[in-house]
Specification:
The structure holds two protein chains of two kinds. By secondary structure, chain A is mainly alpha-helical. In chain A, 66% of the residues lie in helices and 5% in strands. In chain A, strand 1 and strand 2 form a beta hairpin. In chain A, helix 3 runs antiparallel to helix 11 and helix 8 runs antiparallel to helix 9. In chain B, strands 1-2 form a two-stranded antiparallel sheet. Chain B is globular. Classes of the chains: A mainly alpha, B mainly alpha.
């Protein structure tokens, strides 16, 4: 069983771990919106936002570089934004030839490109921290408190619960494919692309039917145990005074970031 | 690698707040409809089913197949989900998948999640189901051919929308981002089409009752043909137009106040940066589209042949 293959929660005791999940979701979202609102080249605000993140890393007891290490995944997306380097008018910095085009990097283009990357990188770190200090069921429950419709949160809860089961199913299917498509060294196994796509498609169809039939059994088992269309939790989710203080403090910090970024 | 992310997820920081909010609103309104429709037509049994189907789409994205040169194709799943579950349920399922990918893997941001759900969940489901519904009652070959085209086009629609959003946010230049996104996804879409068709053919063969003609009216009305058809047509028409005549779109965007402050002229080209490839770009987009359509057509013929040989 790969029951923990997708769980990003880190078991530790810290102030952030104990904080109400609603607070954590809310502050994360406000922080990300705040990043998106900061103007290009607001260096002091960017650095302050990162210090705020580092402080949260410390408070969470995960290690000061925890989110930094895991934020590398956002980098490949930078390619999408690379054209702003050349497309925004400004003082030319350097010119070079790329295939058939002469490209000029401008100061404003560079400024915007770097700013977009920093915004993205800060936001990714905050999201990483959120899931590292909040259990997924608590996260879903927080979404429910924040008025996300019950249909959606219930689907998400089921998705999370059965993801591990179906992942095992997929790994079994993949292993079966591997073991049946051995190849001598130097030669390719299996047929052409179309044949391979057919095998993959049949695997997806197979997985669909197994999931569909499994959902029938699961539903019957749930009804037998008293399910009536609603999931319950034993977690009381009560806001304590420390939760209110933490929210107020974080919002104040983010507000100051906005002020610093604009003047 | 256990988990293969889909290329279309936009991270936070790449869209500006205005564009993010507009697409959050569009997504919330559509999901509101989806929820009230599914609440009306489906029993409590459907919610566990949808949850497990969402886990299915998530897990099915791990089934990849090697294409060439170390690259591999895998499923996005929007069209498949809409066809097997109906459009509204398909949209809810895709929303759950995209939300969990963003929450757990930072695969796509939180502020831009509205746009990501719109691109990859809502539009793909509308095109997938609409085009599939339009060939209900036809032969199996015609149905699978339509599904291949729908799956391919749904990926192209997602790519087009992503490109437009990046451009509206001032993150990317239209003449570059549209051909780049649509060119790459013309190929990725072929992978989507292949897996979707073969998965569906498998389901039709083993559990035809799940996709029976009788169950279709319960999933979505004939109006979906219009919705899917119009969205599909828009994608086909806008993609060459957008890069061939960006000023037209820019004007629209300016009139609607989309273009953010601090970015006065996204296109005014740098003085000594001559662009003779504006026309070329439109041409290349159209070419990419034509190549894609030819590839899909060939695949449809091949699949049709394979089906005939089998039966």
């Amino acid at each position: 069983m790969h029951f923990d293959a997708f769980d990003r929660y880190h078991e530790t005791q810290s102030f952030l771990h104990r904080l109400d999940p609603r607070v954590k979701v809310l502050v994360t979202v406000i922080f990300i919106v705040s990043n998106a609102l900061l103007p290009d080249g607001a260096w002091i605000a960017f650095v302050s936002a990162w210090i705020f993140l580092l402080a949260n890393n410390l408070i969470s007891k995960l290690g000061i570089g925890y989110t930094l290490k895991r934020s590398i995944i956002a980098l490949p997306f930078a390619l999408i934004a690379i054209t702003v380097l050349f497309s925004i008018p400004g003082e030319p910095l350097t010119t070079f030839n790329f295939i058939a085009w002469q490209l000029t990097i401008t100061d404003n283009g560079l400024l915007r490109f770097v700013s977009i990357l920093i915004r993205s990188w800060l936001s990714v770190q905050m999201a990483i921290l959120l899931v590292a200090v909040t259990r997924f069921p608590d996260l879903v429950h927080a979404l429910e408190h924040l008025r996300v419709p019950a249909v959606l949160t219930t689907i998400i809860a089921f998705l999370y619960r059965y993801l591990f089961v179906l992942t095992d199913e997929v790994l079994r299917l993949l292993r079966a494919r591997e073991s049946r498509s051995g190849a001598a060294p130097g030669s390719r196994s299996g047929g052409g692309v179309l044949w391979r796509a057919k095998v993959a498609g049949n695997m997806a169809g197979q997985l669909f039917l197994r999931s569909y039939e499994r959902s029938d059994r699961i539903y019957n088992a749930m009804v037998a145990r008293g399910y009536a269309g609603h999931l319950y939790t034993l977690n009381p989710h009560e806001m304590k005074s420390s939760d209110y203080y933490a929210t107020a403090f974080a919002i104040a910090v983010i507000f100051i970031l906005q002020v610093v970024g604009r003047f | 690698m256990l988990y293969v992310p889909v290329l279309l997820h936009i991270p936070d920081g790449f869209l500006n707040v205005v564009v993010s909010v507009i697409f959050w609103i569009a997504t919330i309104v559509t999901l509101g409809f989806a929820i009230s429709k599914t609440n009306k037509s489906l029993g409590e049994k459907q919610i566990p089913l949808m949850g497990i189907m969402a886990a299915f789409i998530f897990a099915a994205q791990m089934i990849n197949f090697p294409v060439a040169g170390g690259t591999s194709g895998h499923l996005l799943g929007g069209a498949l989900a809409a066809i097997v579950l109906g459009p509204w349920a398909g949209m809810l399922v895709m929303t759950a998948v995209i939300a969990v990918q963003a929450l757990l893997f930072q695969d796509g941001g939180l502020l831009v999640m509205g746009a990501n759900i719109f691109n990859m969940g809502l539009v793909t489901a509308a095109i997938g189901y609409g085009l599939y519904r339009s060939v209900m009652g036809q032969s199996k070959t015609v149905k699978l051919g339509a599904v291949a085209f729908a799956a391919w086009l749904s990926v192209m629609a997602g790519a087009l929308l992503t490109a437009l959003q990046l451009w509206l946010s001032g993150t990317s230049q239209l003449q570059i981002v549209i051909p780049a996104m649509m060119g790459v996804h013309a190929l990725i879409g072929v992978g989507e089409a292949l897996i979707t068709v073969f998965a569906l053919a498998f389901i039709m063969q083993t559990r035809p009752d799940l996709l029976g003609e009788g169950s279709e009216s319960a999933k979505g009305s004939r109006n979906w043909i219009w919705v899917g058809g119009i969205v599909a047509l828009l994608v086909v028409l806008i993609s060459p137009f957008a890069s061939g005549d960006p000023d037209g779109l820019e004007r629209v965007a300016e009139d609607l106040g989309f273009i953010g402050t601090g970015l006065d002229a996204p296109y005014s080209i740098i003085p000594d940066y001559t662009i003779p490839f504006l026309g070329e770009t439109a041409l290349s987009t159209i070419l990419a589209g034509v190549v894609g359509i030819i590839v899909v057509a060939v695949i449809m013929i091949l699949i049709g042949r394979g089906m005939k040989a089998k039966s």
